[in-house]
Design brief:
It catalyses: L-threonyl-[protein] + FAD = FMN-L-threonyl-[protein] + AMP + H(+). One of its GO terms (molecular function) is transferase activity. The N terminus is likely disordered. The chain starts with a strand and ends in a 7-residue tail after the last helix. It has 9 helices and 17 strands. The strands form 4 sheets. Strands 3-4-8-9-12-15-16-17 form an 8-stranded antiparallel sheet. The protein is α+β, with helices and mostly antiparallel strands.
Length: 341
């Protein structure tokens, strides 16, 4: 039996009411706007007034970032990847330099569990584009060849105007951190416009500034395997400047012969990481939270604590493949109800 679930734009729109993390209902004290970018619906909620021009700036910033970091089309990253198919060295556009440097450090901090160098593996598995989506795993020989040929961002050299990889072809895919970078940029844009209280929900991944009606923003963390109508795993208050991101095996996947194959690949094996159902991270940087959620998912319960310590993450929550909860002391302090689960 085969089952295919694709996290496409249409699916994101239809499933808007079931967020990976869900903020409180928006009432009259909050101005609520929705934009579509980075393959997902992005909701910006501001406690107070927001000028239309600011929303236009946010839309423009998101569109620009999506173009720059997409592996498809002819944007900056797509052009760079094209060069790295045949050359081990390529000029690094100024628009990508800061992101490459930050991602390389995140790759190192995670021990390679977060690694944008998986681009060819993502493409082989069909998770880069709906037109490539598979319903069965790729052939073993193709998978082994792609794994042996891949160039890790951890091992690449950035000077910062040039990127040098150890072998070709190389393909970078920033799907595990670009959304976090986008959220950080939009938050900075809102703050520059004088907005002090807002929440951004980017397809379920969230960052907040300030408060809402003199109280912290409250959100829910989606249950990876809802049972008996229970869709939320836990809820907590998110404070000024905090981001909370989740990686889950329910976002993009297919089922073949009873096995769930999802889009979160372990860069070391080239296979979907099978030790987790979902991983949630709380951090001041949305970009780091995004990458760390992927790294935590790949790490699994055995290495979770050490990897999160290396990445500078104090608050994290992991649901392992058997549905058991694992959480840091800092996260348990934020969600007292976890003690009974």
């Amino acid at each position: 039996m085969k089952q295919t679930i694709i996290g496409l734009a249409l699916c994101a729109v239809l499933a808007w009411g079931v967020w990976q993390q869900r903020p409180e209902p928006v009432h009259n004290d909050v101005v609520h706007r929705e934009l579509f970018a980075l393959g997902t619906l992005i909701q910006i909620s501001v406690a107070g007034h927001i000028e239309p021009a600011v929303m236009n700036q946010a839309q423009a910033a998101l569109t620009d970032l999506e173009t720059r970091w997409s592996v498809l089309g002819d944007g900056d990253l797509a052009q760079l990847n094209k060069t790295l198919q045949t050359q081990t060295s390529a000029p690094l556009p100024s628009t990508l330099q800061a992101g490459f440097a930050a991602a390389r450090q995140l790759c190192l901090d995670s021990g390679g569990r977060f690694d944008p160098g998986v681009g060819d593996l993502v493409r082989l598995w069909g998770f880069d584009d709906e037109d490539h989506f598979r319903t069965t795993p790729p052939p073993a020989d193709q998978l082994n060849a792609a794994l042996q040929q891949r160039s890790s961002l951890c091992d690449s050299h950035i000077d910062p105007q040039t990127v040098v990889v150890d072998q070709v072809p190389a393909r970078f895919d920033f799907g595990a951190s670009a959304k976090g970078r986008a959220v950080d940029e939009v938050i900075a844009l809102l703050q520059a416009a004088g907005i002090h209280n807002a929440i951004i929900n980017a397809g379920g991944d969230i960052k907040v500034i300030g408060r809402r009606a003199q109280r912290a923003w409250r959100i829910g963390i989606r249950h990876p395997r809802p049972v008996d109508g229970r869709t939320m795993l836990a809820s907590l208050q998110v404070h000024d400047g905090e981001a909370i991101f989740t990686s889950g095996d329910y976002e993009r996947f297919f089922i073949d012969n009873g096995v769930r194959y999802h889009h979160i690949l372990d860069p070391r094996t080239g296979l979907p990481a099978m030790g987790s159902q979902s991983a949630t991270v709380l951090h001041s940087s949305a970009e780091r939270a995004d990458a760390a959620a992927t790294a935590l998912f790949v790490a699994g319960a055995q290495d979770a604590a050490s990897v999160m310590q290396q990445m500078g993450v104090d608050s994290w929550l992991l649901v392992d493949a058997n549905g058991r909860l694992h959480a840091s002391d800092a996260m348990r302090a934020r969600i007292p109800d976890l003690a009974s689960q």
